[in-house]
Amino acid sequence: MPKDLHAEIIADLAATLNAWLAERGNHPPVALAPPTREGAGDLALPCHPYARTLRLSPQVIATQLAEVARTHPLVAAAEPVAGFLNLRFDGAALARRALPWALTDDAALGRSDALDGRRILVEYCSPNTNKPLHLGHTRNIVLGSTVAALARAAGAEVVQINLINDRGVHICKSMLAYQRFGEGATPESVGRKSDHYVGDLYVRFEKAFAEEFKTHGEPRGIEKDTYFNTESPLGAEVRRMLQAWEAGDAEVRALWRTMNGWCESGFEATYGRMGVRFDQVDRESQTYLLGKDLIAAGLEREVFERDPSGAVVFDLSRIGLEGKKAVLRSDGTSVYTTQDLGTAVQRLDQHGFDRMIYVVGNEQDHHFQVLFGILEHLRPEVKGRLFHMSYGMVELPDGKMKSREGKVVDADNLMDDLHALAYAAARERNPDMDDAEVHRRAEAIALGGLKFFLLKFGPATGFVFDKERSIALEGETGAYCQYAYARAGSILRKLAAAGEPTASPDYGALTLPQEQAVIHALMAFPGEVRTAALELKPNLLTKAVFEIARAFAAFFNSAEARVIGAEPAIAAARADLVRAARRSLEAGLHLLGMTPLEEM
Asked: Exposed, middle or buried, 161 (CB in 10 Å: 0-12/13-18/19+)?
């Protein structure tokens, strides 16, 4: 079983202090944590909670506890300061304990048993089959796939699900555009990636509708959506096509299958480039009727009620909200919530999940609050198992993306642009290198930079995407972390060429600040990864990987901490420190979906 050495050490220290407190009465357990003030040591304990029962001042308690802490073999210094106990590790003793662990234990790779035995479903991506994936989808995909990877690292059985929105008005818009403007072309005949070709048709429809509205609707002050749904000839054609699809019209269904096939084929190519896979693919065309029977049963149990119009509704006051939510229209047709209710129950029955995570943007916060509230009334056993991983929007430097206007950054185009930037930089660094190898490195740097940039912000945070910054070799970037990994490999190759030290490693000699910083970063890594998995915060993973990379960069840039040329026992110890850093960096990069590079 993976052993979190840092947590083990903290628990051992806490046990020593708790034993002293227990002899003096019943007190809250000791909560050791890194100090908030820089330079105050490695761990700190506020002693104020014990003042009342011990009838001593916090400073006196800290002074007495310092005497107890100094008896621990890993503590070099214990200082009472303003009612706090500040502890500093013995660097030599810590290195002797940490290096063997970092070189062999799976916890140093970010693995744990925190979610052992749990079955976790992660639904993400959920594209519409009327346009290619764009930057917003890219963040969704990167968040979803990383959450899945973190859950697996924590011991969970993970099912990754993609629910494709492949029916409805938006799909019919692209289909109608093909009928009007496609002239029988195919993606192959026009030399266009298949999902981009379908997206071009969607934009073509919206432009045609905008022209129609400008002539017939706008001069009369009618709202655009109202005009589309009531007076627009194009809107009427779209609605007729959707009705024909629902009626099973052979010609409409054939065109729908063809164009959806084009779009999904394009999606698959994008997923493949991003290194993403799904265990289960659901389609709205197969699920949109789900939930009706569930609602009928809920109506009998008085979970729902009928309003005067005949619609079936849920009283939101039952979950602390205002108003009523329709789950079936008065004509008996379903709404999105109907489908989502049915899909959730179907997955519960199919998988018996312990947790179902929906990775969806924050514009759907209210929808999921309502959905989860209704589900808990229909199937009480899901309470506490449903999670909406809400995330903020990614914007361009000139504002929000707008699919209808074609003002988006397509995922494929973005990856191509990043590849071109990374290629130019890699070619400049390696003017004589084989072109295929430069392209391979550029792709790894481009996609690694993209993923790291999209993950380093807390999920709830919105931000502006900066292409150049995302692949920079300096700062908190994916390339910086890849470079640290590559540099570790370079050191080890040079060491092998110079002749590996034959002496036994003296880990106790690794007391330089740069060496200790690497050790501390390695020890902190498992806890950060575990918290990232449990709290759905992948940004903690990027932070932990970056902290190892930053500490390691300070180590390999230090003349004092050279490996080659050092006294043999110290050289052997430093070589193992390099191996340990490289091992954890590689694991962290893989968790982030990034490719470690031997050379940059």
From this structure: buried
